[in-house]
Automatic annotation (TrEMBL):
Positions in coiled-coil regions: 29-63
Native species: Acinetobacter baumannii
Entry protein name: TolC family protein
Keywords annotated in UniProt: Coiled coil, Plasmid
GO molecular function, a single term: efflux transmembrane transporter activity
Pfam families associated with the record: OEP
InterPro entries associated with the record: MdtP/NodT-like, OMP_efflux
Entry's family note: Belongs to the outer membrane factor (OMF) (TC 1.B.17) family.
Superkingdom of source: Bacteria
Amino acid sequence: MRIMSHYRKLPSKVWVRQSLSIVCLLFLYGHANAEILTLENALKRAEENAPTLKANYAQIEGAENNVLASGILPNPKLFVGLDNYPVSGDSAWSVTQEGMTMQKIGVMQDFPNKAKRKAEVELAQAELGVANSQTQILRIDLRQQVATAWFKRFYLEQKLALIDKLLAENGLLGKLTQTQIISGQSLIADAMTPKQEYTVLLDQKDDLSRDLTKAKLELHRLVSANPLENSSQIETLPTQAPNLQVDTAQLYHHLHQHPELKAFQAQKQVTESKLKQAQALQKPDWGIEVAYQHRAPEFGDMIGVQLTTEIPVFSRKRSSPLIQAALAEQNRVTADQEAKYREHLSMLDDGLADIEALNQQIKRATQMSIPYAMQKERLQLASYQAGKAKLTDVIATRQALLEQRMRLIDLQQQQSMITAQLYFNFVEPTQNHTEE
């Protein structure tokens, strides 16, 4: 029995060691293979999975097929009939006694005028151009959304890390307070002050954790093929934010090449094609008819050929309003293009002004506000240790330092988001542009 007992214990120890080894290997493997969701990766994933882009690709495919179908002649018509069928006289109700009675079969083909067919092709091509121009616009909007969500999550994680650091410092402050109480330099009631600060920090951490969860889900919905899958697959972000460069001189120089402004050129092509279609209504269409006519055996068979054309009696009444409508649409597109240009110009002015102000505020925060707050905290803590200051003063300076650090993160977040908006809206879409 002792031998069996010993035999059972030995594999148990081996199993524990093996299990620990496996757990360690899995842990190391998981960390080694944990995916880092850089901004570049997030943008790439979002473009691969965005339903808006997929819908646009389907729209482009449909527009391409419309181009292939445009300008095609209408289907020919097959007809059968009976001409000159007698209904009175000696040959009444007979198809063989009257020489003019003919059974016929033939085909008809309508030919819309050349200008109309050409305008139809140009309209289909212009609508394809509009669909293609929407791709860049949707891509810009998507990349801005992803960048905003990415930076929002990144800086929330920075804030949480700061709170965790302060929570750790709070524990040291609690120990220092206990020492001061024991030495008689602090009141017993001061023992509760670090605990009160601790609860305040926990409340702030809960708020940040809530916001971070929302930010993770928001980013996950943008980059994932299946928004319902486990969001933990994209939880890791890099420790450094990307540095997007914005050349202010080039922004204004290439503003007219922005995809949203160039899209109006495609819309103008549509209106011009509609104008040509309306003008083509003033030109007549024509058609041809060929028939084989069969008569009684004693009479010969015949072939008939007939040409048809429209008489443009009402074409002007129909086309003139359409022409005026197309001209009005052209004026509308031109005005919208000018309005959009001014809107982009205003966005550039506002964005660059915001960045300039944020740069100055961040510089003051890093060089003045935070160093001053840190120095004041150290002095207050030293005064408290010397029994010359109250613990509440130390807590107040710690809270002031926290506010300054949080404000710096907020400023950096605003700077990153505005820079990303300018970069993805104005720099990236025109950076490969060469002047025509």
